[in-house]
Write a structure and sequence with these properties.
The complex is a heterodimer of chains A (about 375) and B (about 350).
Chain A: H1 14-32, H2 49-57, H3 76-88, H4 94-110, H5 113-124, E1 130-133, E2 149-153, E3 156-167, E4 174-180, E5 193-199, E6 205-210, E7 219-230, E8 234-235, H6 241-245, H7 249-253, H8 264-273, H9 279-307, H10 313-338, H11 348-365, H12 372-382
Parallel strand pairs in A: 1-4
Antiparallel strand pairs in A: 2-3, 3-7, 4-5, 5-8, 6-7
Helix pairs in contact in A: 1-3, 4-5, 8-10, 8-11, 9-10, 10-11, 10-12
Chain B: H1 3-19, H2 22-27, H3 34-43, H4 62-74, H5 81-93, E1 103-106, E2 114-116, E3 122-130, E4 137-144, E5 147-154, E6 159-161, E7 171-179, E8 183-186, H6 193-223, E9 227-228, E10 231-232, H7 237-265, H8 273-301, H9 312-322, H10 329-343, H11 348-353
Parallel strand pairs in B: 1-4
Antiparallel strand pairs in B: 2-3, 3-7, 4-5, 5-8, 6-7, 9-10
Classes of the chains: A alpha+beta (about 375), B alpha+beta (about 350).
């Protein structure tokens, strides 16, 4: 066979179910205390630093990391449960989500020990927020076209240039960014970029919010002017960021956040149609439930592969491709089915508001974190076509 | 996959590779390959995988049998292996011994009923029964005044109106007019026609997933051979993206089908929401994948894939045909939607997350 794609039926172990109960109980308390509204999907507007600290206090940030850095040394499958319960509840995870999923693991792998000891425990306590500095005005999917310069100077580098579409940069304490330290070579156009840890909220960095079509200001332009980064903030190999970027993408691309972003409209649709749906509603709901169940089984399967120490890059790309296309279409399918919901449905207004927001959100889902086109290119390479 | 599943699946794989090569079969219009294939499968104990030793079978586990069916799907096997396995499994539920030879099950659709009459005879009509004309016996699920029974019936005593299904295999209407069965026994508690349809649906889901794997395989191979506009068509981004989507549909089908099979293989009872969700979702998602996936496979192959001579149709048309057996995706979507609505909005996520 050409493509030996495996999606073994991994089940979450028993201890995950106890954890799930704890997470649900915690979220129910937070909802009761008014921290967030589970029916309001614009959770990204809710910067909730105190909530972040309480999640940290529960031991649910950096769960898989070594204890000496504040982690719990728990499994990826346990982290999976926390992530999916937070997502389905529309909990305000903006403060800690990027640090927990992506930035922490990069620091663990590439940062010097004293930086790990300084920052990782603070991530685990929910105290610090991270942003990712990848895209630039003329470099999006084509990551290796990045031009923002890091020029060598005494004891470090001077940064000049602009990052863009940087989520959470306006509240972030740190950014992990790639800057150009050398020009690309003829043999390797990916050469010359270096990964850096950047301390935000300093002179030399200007963050300009960018309004989105949802009405939110969630991403930003970040302008660097002679901003100094010390040598020990280089993460990994100088000029060799391209070697570091790919294997970690499996973590970023296969999680529950890659198909549950608009899930709330399905729940409200089920509420709106009531106990005795007509044939059309029943069929529509049945198909959507079958699809989300399948997505989740694929996603859990990839989590199981990660836990087993594998690097399922192609499988993870498949999960993100199918998952994001699904969550993008979901509000439109729910809208189709909601057209015949009784005027008297008690949650009609909630459903309409949610649909409005989800339909506005939908276009970004197949762009952020690797476009559909890039993902299909990766899958095609895995199939031996490129 | 456990080691024992691997061994059984490898045995099946070897038999199919030796005796059911798609190219050879496709050129043999007389069906001369069927008898040696069936004999080899029988000698390996595969048709009665799910029947314990004391009831005449080889006593393989459910998981081992499921792995054979996935392999059978990859070879688009055109003998009633899946049907005989399912029939043996059904008879075993009522502790009825399985006879030798080809079998199939009826009803094969959730809408049809066979009735157990007062005088212990059976009456009814079952449409779309796969391989009925090839079968020596039927395993029948019958509804009577006192509940559900399972019966072994001699095929020769039934009226069979034969027709050819979408995939080119027999797909027949079977009429029982006060037929006396060989044996009838009551079904176990909680076992009904829905149970049979769910199990049949999982069997078909695994076969569809296998056929999609094969379609992906031959489509990738073809795209790396075929040259157009002075380069291999696999180098065109449009073709690459189509094949990436086919890989996604194949992966989704495999994940849904193996998850449902794993659920049934480990279930204490088949009468619960978890089994229903997994099995119904597998049939729905695999059927959707069959449509999207076979469409892409044909698009990649162009005109040659539309010819009788090419093997693609062996997989594509069977995958599409298998959607209809034991309840179509539309049927199961309605049933799953009703269950979800009945449980209520706040129970949906707990149900999904329980798997």
């Amino acid at each position: 066979m050409t493509a030996a794609l495996r999606f073994d039926p991994i089940r979450l172990p028993e201890k995950c179910e106890q954890l799930r109960k704890e997470v649900r109980a915690f979220l129910a308390e937070e909802i009761a205390a008014g921290t967030f509204d589970p029916y309001a999907p614009n959770r990204e507007d809710n910067d909730a630093p105190e909530f972040s600290r309480r999640v940290g206090a529960k031991g649910w940030l950096g769960m898989t990391w070594p204890k000496k850095y504040g982690g719990q040394e728990r499994s990826f499958l346990e982290r999976y449960v926390v992530t999916e319960e937070m997502r389905v509840a529309n909990a305000p995870t903006r403060r800690f989500f990027v640090a927990d999923r992506q930035s922490g693991p990069v620091l663990l792998k590439y940062a010097p020990e004293h930086i790990k000891m300084d920052i990782l425990p603070r991530i685990c306590r929910g105290e610090v927020c991270f942003a990712i500095g990848m895209s630039e005005p003329n470099s999006g999917s084509d990551l290796f076209a990045a031009k923002t310069r890091a020029t060598k100077t005494d004891g470090g580098y001077l940064i000049n240039g602009t990052k863009i579409w940087t989520s959470s940069a306006h509240i972030a304490d740190y950014m992990i960014a790639i800057f150009r330290t050398s020009p690309p070579t003829k043999e390797n156009r990916r050469h010359g970029l270096t990964q850096f840890l950047v301390k935000m909220k300093q002179p030399g960095i200007q963050v300009n919010p960018i309004g989105q079509i949802t009405g939110q200001f969630e991403f930003n332009e970040v302008v660097f002017t002679d901003y100094f980064v010390p040598d020990d903030h280089v993460l990994g190999e100088v000029d060799g960021a391209w070697k570091q970027a790919t294997s970690e993408l499996a973590y970023e691309r296969s999680g529950p956040e890659r198909f549950l972003e608009t899930y709330y409209v399905l729940t409200e649709l089920v509420r709106a149609v009531g106990k005795n749906p007509d044939t059309r509603s029943a069929e529509g709901i049945g198909r959507l439930v079958a699809q989300v169940h399948t997505m989740r089984r694929m996603s859990v399967s990839v989590a199981g592969m990660l836990q087993a120490g594998k690097e399922p890059v192609v499988e993870a790309s498949i999960v993100k491709d199918i998952g994001t296309v699904w969550e993008q279409q979901l509000p439109h399918r729910v809208r189709d089915l909601a057209a015949f919901v009784e005027e008297t449905a008690t949650n009609r207004e909630t459903l309409e508001k949610q649909l409005d927001f989800a339909i506005k959100t939908a276009p970004k889902l197949t762009i952020q974190g690797g476009t559909t086109e890039v993902l299909r290119g990766i899958i095609a390479r895995g199939l031996g076509l490129r | 996959m456990a080691e024992s599943e691997n061994i059984v699946a490898e045995t099946a794989e070897k038999i199919f590779a030796d005796l059911a090569d798609a190219q050879t079969i496709n050129h043999d219009k007389q069906g001369a390959w069927k008898a040696p294939l069936w004999q080899a499968l029988t000698e390996a104990g595969l048709p009665l995988s799910w029947v314990p030793d004391d009831l005449g079978g080889s006593g393989a586990s459910l998981a081992e049998g499921f792995s054979v069916l996935n392999v059978a799907g990859r070879h688009a096997i055109a003998v009633p292996l899946a049907e005989t396995m399912l029939a043996g499994w059904l008879l075993t539920q009522a502790k009825i011994a399985s006879p030798e030879g080809e079998m199939t099950v009826l009803p094969a659709s959730p809408k049809d009923r066979v009735t157990l009459n007062a005088g212990s005879s059976l009456s009814g009509r079952a449409r779309g029964v796969p391989f009925a004309k090839d079968a020596k016996h039927f395993a029948v699920l019958a509804t009577g005044k006192d509940g559900i029974s399972i019966a072994l019936v001699d095929a020769a005593k039934c009226r069979i109106e034969s027709s050819t299904g979408l995939g080119g295999d027999h797909n027949d209407t079977v009429t029982l007019d006060e037929v006396q069965p060989v044996t009838t026994k009551p079904a176990p508690k909680g076992f009904d026609q829905t149970t049979l349809m769910l199990m049949g649906g999982v069997v078909r889901s695994l076969q569809i997933a296998g056929a999609l794997e094969a379609m992906l395989d031959i489509s990738v191979r073809y795209s790396n051979e075929r040259v157009a506009f002075e380069k291999k068509i696999s180098k065109f981004q449009a073709v690459q993206h189509n094949l990436a989507r086919l890989a996604g549909e194949s992966a989704a089908a495999l994940a849904a089908a193996t998850s449902a099979a794993d659920t049934i293989a480990n279930a204490k009872s088949l009468d619960n929401d978890a089994v229903f969700l997994e099995a119904a979702a597998a049939k729905i998602r695999c059927s959707e994948a069959a449509e999207k996936g076979s469409g892409i496979a044909h698009q990649v192959h162009g005109a040659i894939g539309f010819t009788n001579e090419h093997i693609l149709h062996r997989y594509s048309l069977r995958a599409l045909a298998w959607r209809d057996d034991f309840g179509s995706e539309s049927y199961w979507a309605v049933e799953l939607g009703k269950l979800v609505a009945e449980r209520g909005a706040d129970e949906l996520w707990p149900l999904v997350a329980s798997r």
